[in-house]
Design goal:
By secondary structure, this protein is α/β, with parallel strands linked by helices. The chain has three domains: 2-185, Rossmann fold, CATH 3.40.50.880; 194-380, HUPs (Rossmann fold, 3-Layer(aba) Sandwich), CATH 3.40.50; 400-494, GMP Synthetase, Chain A, domain 3, CATH 3.30.300. The protein has 14 helices and 18 strands. The protein has a nine-stranded mixed β-sheet with strand order 2-1-3-4-9-8-7-5-6, with helices on both faces. Strands 12-11-10-13-14 form a five-stranded parallel β-sheet, sandwiched between helices. Strands 15, 16, 17 and 18 form a four-stranded mixed β-sheet that branches. Strand 15 and strand 16 form a beta hairpin. The radius of gyration is 25 Å and the shape is globular. The two termini are 39 Å apart. The chain binds xanthosine-5'-monophosphate (XMP). The site of xanthosine-5'-monophosphate (XMP) has 17 residues, from loops. InterPro entries: Class_I_gatase-like, GATASE, GMP_synth_C, GMP_synth_GATase, GMP_synthase, GMPS_ATP_PPase_dom, NAD/GMP_synthase, Rossmann-like_a/b/a_fold. This is GMP synthase [glutamine-hydrolyzing]. It catalyses: XMP + L-glutamine + ATP + H2O = GMP + L-glutamate + AMP + diphosphate + 2 H(+).
């Protein structure tokens, strides 16, 4: 195991992902984890994350200096590097030039960290403080034009620090550096693999559940589907899946989910058609957060009613994945949008314990596990679909007519993206029904109809994203199909904003 100590940076999950991609198991722990606990875990290495604070500020997150005496290799990233330097007697201060963005860094090949890395390599910088003077015994191992200490180390003690962020994709050889830290410095064995994980999980679930009853709220999304199938492989029909159709799914989606789960897997599948209830509650509501709240609450209510019919169950399944654990347990980052998982925890469902079979996995690992378990590829690679569904893709108030318009437009968009062979290279793409109506002309008639916005982004982690460059002819074809085939749409626009400053969804 490798431990990642969280100092509040925005890329902490990415660090953990990169480490796992190198086949090394890791966990993110809060920075105030005790040295005792860290020693108990016997990590092969420790990584300090970045963070927004200044090491010299009062109340900035810190750590017991004793961590450097444990004989465990440490890699400090950005704030983590500054903190290491500061604690060991070096000086950190506000940089004369704030560095942000892609920056050329010149590395020293004698450092184990930079084995096989190009002499001049592009790295992602994002810092206002810098290491003005490094601590005794350290040497500089990389520099950039405005950052004299872009990386430093004390190799005799296996202590390494980098000012840039090797974990983000913009650092072109960042993964290589992390790999070097894990294998050249920490001597990890690299035995974290997926097939052994699913096999072991099914065995453990079988032992834990025994002959008891399990209940699962199935959304049809990747996480809840993989969790459900994993449990069904362990205990078959002892599992009941409740699928609440809130009428805000994409075209035909409810039927597709039902088909997969009733035909392919051995579970009790209950579909609740609750469209009317949701539409009534949402009527006239325009605020995005209020929509989310209403849907989340109603979802729980419907689920509870169904669960009551089943009676007492022993276990409730949650499709929690590792990023959720990190975010809810440790994160200090600002809430941009609430309720990223519809459902929450039903208060009144009668169960004894929660099981979270995917708690230790990242999204890409959940997908790998899904394929291992025999879930159809189209479900496993389904792009993320928000819990509140089309409700947050219709700007303003929601009506059945608008849902219908959006479902049709979105279906055409998705069909044509697949036809163009772009469906796997674009991270997420969908149509949005804006609340703009404008004048158009159809035949000889004046129209006054809706504008549909098309959104498509490439992203690795959904925390940052760039707009996808879809060829003009593909966009042109989609545009004419939608305005020709979908009534009440007379204008199509394409969103060319990244995240930040926009978000992926419009609401
Ligand atoms: P944003 O819009 O925040 O989206 O850039 C990032 C990712 O999260 C999804 N998303 C949601 N998922 N409930 C969800 O389950 C929500 O309320 C919600 N809002 C956004 C979004 O689809 C994207 O993948």
């Amino acid at each position: 195991i490798v431990i990642i100590l969280d100092f509040g940076g925005q890329y902490n999950q990415l660090i953990a992902r990169r480490v796992r991609e190198c086949n090394v198991y890791c966990e993110v722990l809060p920075h105030n984890t005790s040295l005792e606990r860290i020693k108990e875990l016997q990590p092969k290495g420790i990584i300090f994350t970045g963070g927004p604070a200044s090491v010299y500020a009062e109340d900035s997150p810190t750590i017991d200096k004793g961590i450097f005496e444990l004989g465990i290799p440490v890699l400090g990233i950005c704030y983590g590097a500054q903190l290491m330097n500061y604690l060991l007697g070096g000086k950190v201060s506000k940089a004369p030039v704030r560095e942000y963005g892609k920056t050329e860094v010149t590395v020293n090949h004698e450092s184990k960290l930079f084995k096989d890395v190009s002499k001049n390599t592009i790295c992602w910088m994002s810092h206002t403080d810098y290491i003005e003077q490094f601590a005794e015994g350290f040497t500089i191992s990389a520099q950039s034009e405005s950052c004299p200490v872009a990386a430093f180390e004390k190799s005799s003690q296996n202590l390494y620090g980098v000012q840039f962020h090797p974990e983000v994709v913009h650092s072109q050889e960042g993964t290589k550096m992390i790999n070097n830290f894990l294998y050249e410095v920490c001597k990890c064995s690299g035995d974290w693999k997926m097939d052994s994980f699913t096999e072991q999980s099914i065995k453990d679930l079988k032992a834990k559940i025994g002959d008891k009853k399990v209940l699962c709220a199935l959304s049809g999304g990747v996480d809840s589907s993989v969790a459900a199938v994993m449990i069904s492989k362990a205990v078959g029909k002892q599992l009941t899946c409740i699928f609440v159709d809130h009428g805000l799914l994409r075209k035909n989606e409810g039927d597709e989910v039902e088909k997969v789960f009733t035909e392919q897997f051995d579970v009790n599948f209950v579909r609740v058609n609750a469209q009317e209830r949701f539409y009534n509650k949402l009527a006239g509501v325009t605020d995005p957060e209020t929509k989310r709240k209403i849907i989340g609450e109603e979802f729980i209510r419907v689920f509870e009613e169904e669960a009551k019919k089943i009676g007492t169950v022993d276990f409730l399944v949650q499709g929690t994945i590792y990023p959720d654990v990190i975010e809810s347990g440790l994160g200090k980052s600002a809430v941009i949008k609430s309720h990223h998982n519809v459902g929450g925890l039903p208060d009144y469902v009668d169960f004894k314990e929660i099981i979270e079979p995917l708690r230790d996995l990242f999204k890409d690992e959940v997908r790998k596990a899904g394929l291992e378990l025999g879930i159809p590829e189209r479900l496993v690679f389904r792009q993320p679909f928000p819990g509140p569904g089309l409700a947050i893709r219709i700007i303003g108030d929601i009506t059945e007519e608008k849902i219908k318009i959006l479902q049709e437009a979105d279906a055409i968009y998705r069909e044509e993206i697949a036809n163009a062979g772009l469906d796997r290279s674009i991270g997420q793409y969908f149509a949005v029904l804006t609340n703009i109506r404008s004048v158009g002309v159809m035949g000889d008639e004046r129209t006054y109809d809706y504008t549909v916005a098309l959104r498509a982004v490439t992203t690795t982690d959904f925390m940052t994203a760039e707009f996808a460059e879809i060829p003009w002819d593909v966009l042109g074809h989609i545009s004419s199909r939608i305005v020709n085939e979908v009534k009440h749409v007379n204008r199509i626009v394409y969103d060319i904003t990244g995240k930040p400053p926009a978000t992926i969804e419009f609401e």
